From TrEMBL:
<feature type="transmembrane region" description="Helical">
    <location>
        <begin position="127"/>
        <end position="148"/>
    </location>
</feature>
<dbReference type="GO" id="GO:0140114">
    <property type="term" value="P:cellular detoxification of fluoride"/>
</dbReference>
<feature type="compositionally biased region" description="Basic and acidic residues">
    <location>
        <begin position="13"/>
        <end position="22"/>
    </location>
</feature>
<keyword id="KW-0472">Membrane</keyword>
<keyword id="KW-1003">Cell membrane</keyword>
<keyword id="KW-0915">Sodium</keyword>
<feature type="transmembrane region" description="Helical">
    <location>
        <begin position="95"/>
        <end position="112"/>
    </location>
</feature>
<keyword id="KW-0812">Transmembrane</keyword>
<feature type="transmembrane region" description="Helical">
    <location>
        <begin position="60"/>
        <end position="83"/>
    </location>
</feature>
<comment type="similarity">
    <text>Belongs to the fluoride channel Fluc/FEX (TC 1.A.43) family.</text>
</comment>
<dbReference type="Pfam" id="PF02537">
    <property type="entry name" value="CRCB"/>
</dbReference>
<dbReference type="InterPro" id="IPR003691">
    <property type="entry name" value="FluC"/>
</dbReference>
<keyword id="KW-0479">Metal-binding</keyword>
<dbReference type="GO" id="GO:0046872">
    <property type="term" value="F:metal ion binding"/>
</dbReference>
<dbReference type="GO" id="GO:0062054">
    <property type="term" value="F:fluoride channel activity"/>
</dbReference>
<feature type="binding site">
    <location>
        <position position="103"/>
    </location>
    <ligand>
        <name>Na(+)</name>
    </ligand>
</feature>
<feature type="region of interest" description="Disordered">
    <location>
        <begin position="1"/>
        <end position="26"/>
    </location>
</feature>
Amino acid sequence: MPDSPAQTVGDPLHPRALPEQRPRRHPGQGAVVAVVALGGAIGACARYGIALGWPTAPDAFPWTTLVVNAVGCAVIGVFMVVITDVWAAQRLVRPFFGTGVLGGFTTFSTYTTDVQRLADGGHPRTALAYLALTVVAALASVWAAAAATRRVVAWRQK
């Protein structure tokens, strides 16, 4: 028995679905996915190396994660100013470095795990302080780095 039009409504994968019902394909995204994956591997390896070199004791304040996240946010502040105000970057630079490297380097998943570890370990005040301090440090870092980079760019253009 042939499909009725009602059977294709709402089924975007049906062979007779209307074009506007079908999922969109994004040709050329393979390169973007590849550079994000490569950058993410590089960033995650860098973060892992830092964590090995500067380990955090189980009940200690997680300074390593805080510093990594603040530094990563500062670098993204510089990077975004450079690629938007100074340099017309090739289309794969931003996904490679911004999403990949810096996304892999910063570790907000570890940040939330650290907060839970501190709270579960009987250190709720430290957990709350770390929770707030990380957000403030991340926002302040990206803002200060972007502002400083804009000043340097303006100074160099004089």
